[in-house]
């Protein structure tokens, strides 16, 4: 990669040796970030592999605590402390505005704050994680400084501790205090947050952007957070509710998405309940997540800086920031791996973001104006063979702009059905249900479900995971998805998640 040298590649190599990891392949050597994403699996820190959420006997009562906030009363949750952040040369930086997030100790709006206080108390006093909303997806949070609490996340999710977790902070003073415990914002010490990140922090924080920082040694972070890596991912969520929870918990929160391992990320409290009922005690319900896909993960510790995961902040926005003009993509989508024209064999994938139904994705560049009928027939026949003939199969369509109603399949009785039990989901998209008919309109070939996410890509991101979950709930056997044009905007995140969810990618 044009002489890319990373300052910490040596550290990393040493780290890998220490952990007795397999020999790195040449392709992984090209870039340490690829190494980071591919080989973040040190055995030494792994807790025993957890059984999937559905096969465990662990049960406890799971309560949803509704936080009654909306745009009109959001200021009740807290505010940024006003500080004059002048440097010795008289300059001011906007990032210092994010120095201190304050939550009122008592408030006439205790009714709104008390569920957050209860959840924070739970985080401080138990090792059971709490699910909470962020602007991207719901997270499953635990005190990032306590090993026992972080292990609780893996136990609840049913995921092995081989993947580093993102650390969520409420403000910059919290971040600085654990990367450099002696740092004082009043003094003229150098900011412990590397300068490369200042333009990003000032533009995108609080928000859906995760940055990689060197993990100090010794570190206050529990080793389970970083999975043995010399860096840790950190973000300050845009959600005031999330920031107030972190503030009241008085600790940075390590939090992966609050889904059961392999499932689509949760964007409503109900999704968390569906996956983790009986495995956690509390879910803070702050309504549906505005962004709907996870944060963008970037690494600015090497040159050129890279995007490790596309997400809520787009590549084109990052590129506009000083020092990030040459940012490169360090993730590979399945479609690029096999070449855009190579369809992927079904079943040949590590499951991620996957509903129970099989997902068949059509890349936008194929320019299909409707779902190919032969593909739907094939899928219905295959589903019939798997489960025994006789019962009517359920076919679902998710469309995003070009495809007509029902993806162009001949249908009857296609009526709106409420997206009940899914909280705010019903407000975002209509779910329609009817029958798929053969060409003469005489025979019912399958039950038909369809969701139109619309042609605004932000709307698609917002509703995507909820749509996959809704179709699962309604018993879809196979979901045909109309892909969106993969640009440098949030469409990159949408397609990245869809390609991971799909067992078939077609053009
Ligand atoms: O929007 C989000 O980021 C959500 C919400 C809850 O904040 N969280 C989330 O966490 O998506 P999770 O665990 O599902 O994904 C964390 C991602 C993974 O891709 C992981 O590999 C990457 O961040 N990551 C975290 N720390 C890293 C590190 N030190 N080096 C490389 N990648 C890291
Ligand atoms: Mg996740």
UniProtKB/TrEMBL annotation:
Localization (cell): Cytoplasm
Gene3D superfamilies: DHBP synthase (3.90.870.10), Threonylcarbamoyl-AMP synthase, C-terminal domain (3.40.50.11030)
Pfam families tied to this protein: Sua5_C (PF03481), Sua5_yciO_yrdC (PF01300)
Sorted UniProt keywords: ATP-binding, Cytoplasm, Nucleotide-binding, Nucleotidyltransferase, Transferase, tRNA processing
Record field: catalytic activity: L-threonine + hydrogencarbonate + ATP = L-threonylcarbamoyladenylate + diphosphate + H2O
Main location: cytoplasm
NCBIfam families: L-threonylcarbamoyladenylate synthase
Record-given protein name: Threonylcarbamoyl-AMP synthase
The species this protein was found in: Neurospora intermedia
């Amino acid at each position: 990669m044009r002489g890319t040298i990373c300052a910490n590649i040596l550290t990393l190599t040493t780290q890998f040796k220490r952990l007795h990891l397999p020999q790195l392949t040449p392709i992984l050597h090209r870039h340490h970030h690829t190494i980071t994403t591919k080989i973040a699996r040190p055995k030494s820190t792994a807790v025993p592999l957890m059984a999937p959420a559905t096969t465990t006997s662990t049960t406890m009562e799971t309560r949803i605590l509704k936080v009654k906030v909306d745009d009109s009363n959001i200021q009740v949750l807290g505010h940024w402390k006003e500080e004059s952040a002048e440097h010795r040369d008289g300059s001011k930086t906007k990032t210092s505005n994010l120095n201190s997030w304050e939550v009122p100790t008592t408030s006439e709006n205790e009714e709104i704050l008390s569920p957050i206080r209860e959840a924070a108390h739970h985080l401080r006093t138990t090792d059971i994680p709490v699910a909470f909303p962020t602007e991207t997806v719901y997270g499953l949070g635990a005190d990032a400084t306590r090993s026992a609490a972080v292990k609780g996340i893996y136990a609840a999710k049913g995921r092995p501790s081989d993947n580093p977790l993102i650390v969520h902070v409420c403000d910059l003073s919290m971040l600085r205090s654990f990367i450099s415990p002696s740092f004082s914002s009043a003094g003229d010490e150098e900011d412990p947050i590397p300068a490369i990140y200042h333009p990003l922090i000032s533009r995108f924080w609080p928000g859906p952007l995760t940055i990689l920082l060197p993990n100090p040694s010794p570190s206050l972070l529990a080793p389970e957070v970083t999975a043995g890596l010399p860096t840790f991912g950190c973000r300050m969520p845009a959600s005031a509710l999330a920031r107030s929870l972190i503030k009241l918990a008085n600790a940075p929160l390590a939090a992966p998405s609050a889904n059961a391992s392999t499932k689509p990320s949760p964007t409503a409290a109900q999704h968390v309940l569906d996956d983790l009922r009986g495995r956690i005690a509390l879910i803070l319900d702050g309504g549906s997540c505005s962004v709907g896909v996870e944060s963008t993960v970037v690494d600015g510790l090497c040159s050129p800086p890279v995007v490790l995961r596309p997400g809520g902040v787009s590549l084109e926005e990052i590129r506009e920031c000083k020092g990030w003009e040459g940012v490169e993509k360090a993730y590979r989508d399945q479609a690029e791996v096999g070449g855009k024209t190579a369809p992927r064999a079904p079943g040949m994938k590590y499951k991620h973001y996957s509903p129970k139904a099989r997902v068949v994705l059509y890349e936008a560049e194929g320019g299909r104006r409707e779902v190919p009928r032969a593909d739907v027939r094939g899928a219905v026949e295959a589903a019939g063979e798997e489960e025994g003939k006789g019962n009517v199969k359920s076919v679902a369509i998710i469309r995003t702009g070009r495809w007509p109603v029902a993806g162009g399949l001949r249908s009857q009785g296609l009526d709106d059905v409420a997206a009940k039990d899914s909280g705010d989901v019903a407000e975002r998209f209509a779910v329609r249900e009817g029958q798929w008919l053969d060409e003469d309109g005489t025979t019912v070939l399958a039950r038909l479900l369809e969701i139109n996410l619309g042609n605004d890509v932000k709307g698609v991101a917002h509703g995507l995971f909820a749509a996959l979950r809704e179709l699962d709930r309604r018993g879809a056997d196979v979901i045909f998805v109309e892909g969106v044009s993969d640009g440098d905007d949030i469409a990159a995140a949408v397609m990245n998640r869809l390609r991971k969810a799909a067992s078939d990618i077609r053009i």
